[in-house]
DNA sequence: ATGGCTGCGGAACGCAGA
């Protein structure tokens, strides 16, 4: 089974690429982030033509997540149970479903904006709620994984120049501790291999030639429990999808499972 | 060529992204 995660930065803008990519890779389950469209605008028809069912949690201009599956889609949970609000709203940042043999979450963790910003404490609270919500499934015997845009680089190796990120979000001890606490439920960071260069970055800023200069970050992660991690036969970042006109600023992370 | 941001809402430019 091939499972992947991809922050598409607008499913509307990315639809031609997305459909072509699904066909060429034969992905069975795709976790999507930043759909940037309302649920009733989601292109369910075109995805169904390719054989995918979709679980969607999306409300409009910002955020939005989905799970696409052609191996079944059951027991959908929309949103993060017990998750915090921002500006009085539970933002659409999580959706989960059972896809064939595995329980799968697609998450888009809040950015945090600046250390000390209200959005930053929201980010940390969001991680706490996520940790509580996945604990039972993480410890269970069924393959389980949280995939998505975590908006944290787990180590200094996961940013192109740690000096540039000093004092910024995505690399602070508080955020990395939140990731470690999440892993403490029994989850392993499934490290993908890069297709080029030495680090498996998943995001490159659109600005200032970020991609050609490989000024990247690894912030799109696959956190699987032991039954999931032990079934992994391959994992890679599909940097080819970051190339050319009309690319997202994130590349897909692809994981092959023997299940 | 991998190339100096992009998408959205709304109809100019501000917000958000990380």
Brief rundown of the structure:
Belongs to the DNA repair enzymes AP/ExoA family. The chain contains 5 helices and 14 strands.
Distance between the termini: 6 Å
Low-confidence spans: pLDDT under 50, at least 5 residues? Answer: none
Any idea what the radius of gyration is?
A: 17 Å
Overall structural class, as computed from helix and strand content, comes to alpha+beta
Query: How many strands appear in the DSSP assignment?
Result: 14
Helical residue percent band? 10-25%
The coarse silhouette is: globular
Classify the beta-strand content into a percent band.
Answer: 25-35%
Reading side by side through the largest sheet, how are the strands ordered?
3-4-2-1-14-13
- Quickly count the helices: 5
Largest sheet: 6 strands, mixed
Q: What's the order of the H and E elements?
A: EHEHEEEEEHEHEEEEHEE
Specify the oligomeric state.
single chain
Mean pLDDT across all residues, rounded? Answer: 97
What would your notes on this structure say?
It is a single chain. Helices cover 23% and strands 26% of the residues. Helix 3 packs parallel to helix 4 (173-183). The protein is globular and about 45 Å long. The termini are close together. The strands form three sheets. The chain has a six-stranded mixed β-sheet. Strands 5-6-7-8-12-9 form a six-stranded mixed β-sheet. Strands 10-11 form a two-stranded antiparallel sheet. The protein has helices at residues 11-25, 44-49, 118-139, 173-183, 226-230, and strands at residues 2-7, 29-33, 53-57, 65-69, 74-78, 94-99, 102-108, 144-149, 188-189, 203-204, 216-217, 220-224, 232-237, 253-257. The protein has 259 residues and is an alpha+beta fold. It binds one DNA strand of 18 nucleotides through loops. Residues 4-250 form the Endonuclease/exonuclease/phosphatase domain. Its EC number is 3.1.11.2. Its cofactor is Mg(2+). Belongs to the DNA repair enzymes AP/ExoA family.
